[in-house]
Give the backbone structure.
Amino acid sequence: MATNPPGQAFPNKARVAILAELEKERRRLLNTPGASISLSRPNLKEFRDNAEQQHIAAQQKAALQHAHTHSSGFFITQDSSFGNLILPVIPRLEPES
């Protein structure tokens, strides 16, 4: 029986056979209809946009809580063209006739 150099757990032939089997299984999984596993890395821009949206949502929540506790008015969260996180709501009063 041949001895392997230190640090090698399998002989080269066994290693090649294992790698070939893994490659065959990988190809089978990739060719399976309905396989929805993405092997590519997520887009960095999408990751940043998602993180930014979560940060803005947290800021909106904090601003809304602060406004409700320190003001007697009503406020809502809404995307604003001017960067406002919350907007005051003014109730409509019916004119007295």
The radius of gyration is 30 Å.
